[in-house]
């Protein structure tokens, strides 16, 4: 028995060294290099309680406020998590909310509301590992109602005459004017958001 | 002479009608590409995502997919999806169901027609 363990020790040591070495490589970019941690939904009107729900359930992937668990720092898990975070930020980055055009904010709010209401978000495999992101039915309803109220507020605002603008790192296209959306949020190119 | 003029007028009218039909008739093959690029971020054919599933949507009453949680506005509407209603919906969802949850607009009429042709084809197979 001890002989077998003695034989396995070099194998485990080699695997540990390899994983540590691979963890220094970031083929999809490092989630922590996307930007400095800032308040999310800047410019939006949101009550503290609902903001707390969004922070709990959404911001770890959909903002620069990403807190990686220990296992998320070790390859290949770190690569998978980095890819997911970059895709999520590309789809919607709550740290850059103010940089989206009003029209894009309205579209994102409608997507968020419907996704949360229909249990598309937060994604199941994420919630399995992050139980704090789980939303109750009441909390889902609260987020949904906020998205509707915020959409209504944004729609009531006077439109700027210069047309919508999108900042680098934020949504590149305004989808309202015949633009085409990405085919699938899980099949996107990795974009760091910097 | 009068007969010739009448024939020419009929010919021109027919030509005009045909060109109008050609301009508005969608192409299902192109529609599939547009659908893939434009709609599948939120919709799938056979399962609810951010939006309801879209196979067999053509000819179906709006807001009645039991697998999807619609807005109150959508639940209460009395609309059946056909070429006219789908075109209005894709051009401006608010114009047909005020207060719905889909903030999306496709301004290109030919792309709308292509998508509708694709959805129609899927519903008749």
Q: What's the short version?
A:
The complex is a heterodimer of chains A (194) and B (125). Chain A is mainly α.
Global outline of chain B: elongated
Q: What's the main sheet of chain A like?
A: none
Radius of gyration of chain A: 20 Å
**Helix-strand pattern of chain B, N to C?**
HHHHHH
Overview of the structural elements:
The complex is a heterodimer of chains A (194) and B (125). Chain A is mainly α. Chain A is built from seven helices and no strands. Chain A starts with a helix and ends in a 38-residue tail after the last helix. Chain B is mainly α. Chain B is built from six helices and no strands. In chain B, α2 (28-38) crosses α6 (109-124) and α4 (83-91) crosses α6. The longest helix of chain B is centred in the N-terminal third of the chain and has 23 residues, at 2-24. Mean pLDDT of chain B is 87; it is low at 18-23. The A-B interface holds A 106-107, 109-111, 113-115, 117-118, 120, 148, 151, 175-178, 180-185 and B 34, 36-42, 48-51, 68-69, 71, 101-108, 111.
Strand and helix layout:
The complex is a heterodimer of chains A (194) and B (125).
Chain A: H1 2-23, H2 48-57, H3 59-62, H4 77-91, H5 102-117, H6 124-129, H7 137-156
Chain B: H1 2-24, H2 28-38, H3 72-75, H4 83-91, H5 93-96, H6 109-124
Helix pairs in contact in B: 2-6, 4-6
List the keywords.
heterodimer; A: 194 residues; mainly alpha; 7 helices; elongated; disordered C terminus; B: 125 residues; 54% helix
């Amino acid at each position: 028995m001890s002989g077998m363990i003695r034989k396995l020790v070099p194998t485990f040591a080699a695997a540990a060294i390899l994983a540590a070495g691979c963890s220094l490589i970031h083929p999809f970019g490092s989630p922590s290099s996307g930007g400095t941690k800032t308040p999310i939904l800047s410019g939006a009107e949101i009550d503290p309680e609902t903001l707390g729900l969004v922070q709990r359930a959404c911001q770890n992937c959909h903002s620069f406020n990403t807190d990686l668990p220990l296992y998320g720092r070790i390859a290949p898990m770190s690569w998978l998590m980095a890819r997911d975070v970059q895709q999520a930020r590309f789809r919607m980055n709550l740290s850059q909310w103010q940089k989206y055009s009003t029209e894009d904010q309205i579209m994102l709010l409608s997507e968020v509301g419907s996704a949360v209401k229909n249990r598309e978000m937060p994604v199941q495999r994420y919630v399995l590992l992050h139980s704090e992101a789980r939303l109750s039915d009441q909390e889902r309803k609260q987020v949904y109602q906020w998205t509707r109220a915020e959409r209504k507020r944004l729609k009531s605002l006077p439109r700027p005459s210069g047309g919508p603008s999108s900042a680098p790192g934020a949504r590149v296209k305004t989808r309202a004017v015949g633009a085409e959306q990405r085919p699938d949020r899980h099949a996107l190119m990795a974009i760091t958001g910097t | 002479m009068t007969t010739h003029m009448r024939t020419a007028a009929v010919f021109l009218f027919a030509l005009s009608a045909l060109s109008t039909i050609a301009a508005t008739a969608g192409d299902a093959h192109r529609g599939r590409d547009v659908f893939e690029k434009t709609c599948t971020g939120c919709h799938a054919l056979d399962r609810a995502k951010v939006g309801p599933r879209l196979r067999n949507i053509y000819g179906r009453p709006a807001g009645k997919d039991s697998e999807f949680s619609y807005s109150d506005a959508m639940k209460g509407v009395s609309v059946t999806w056909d070429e006219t209603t789908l075109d209005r919906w894709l051009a401006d969802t608010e114009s047909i169901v005020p207060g719905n949850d889909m903030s999306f607009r496709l301004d290109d009429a030919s792309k709308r027609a292509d998508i509708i042709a694709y959805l129609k084809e899927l519903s008749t197979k």
